[in-house]
Description:
Number of strands: 7
Helix content: 40-55%
Strand content: 15-25%
Structural class: alpha/beta
Strand order of the largest sheet: 1-2-3-4-5-6-7
Distance between the termini: 32 Å
Largest sheet: 7 strands, parallel
Amino acid sequence: DGYWHCAGIARAVQESGLRAAVGMGIVDAQGAEQGESCKKMAMAFMEMVPHFGPRIQPLLFPHALYSVSPENLRWCSRFAETHGINLHIHLSEPVQEVTDCLNRYGMRPAFHLDRLGFLHERTILAHGVFLDDAELDLIARRGATLITNPTSNLKLAVGGIFPYERVAARGIAVGLGSDGAASNNSLDMFQELKTFALVQKHAQKDPT
Length: 208
């Protein structure tokens, strides 16, 4: 889980008896001041983590390439390495993200992240709908994890389906997510399992 109010999320997890990775959201789309505020909150949350016990794992959650500057993505990468924590980011969810990245940086999103030192075995990439074969080869080499969010992708009509067959063929670790309630309406993981299976059957034209 992640975004804002990480301390409150961590307390809820602590009381529930569950385990969780809780990520502090980083965005700077509204300017440098917003980015600095997020970074300060991330550092403050890291100081609080030991008080929540061993079931709470902190991570850093820069939102996406289009909402976090390259400078702050580099900061996130260094911060995560210093503290030995995971990174989590939305990647290649809408096709517009791919187009904008090519126009702005001259490369596709996964390669842009790699250039920033962001892509490694502690990186968790959400969505990945429009990753091409070269990007998937890169992700496999770096040992990153992909998380598919089928219900969210359908609700937001992103226009594509997570390329599970190509991902699995490369041995990339795959997780299942819901994305946020605003882009799903439900955080029911059993329903997510069903939706994932159905869209993959549809995409691969294979009912088995």
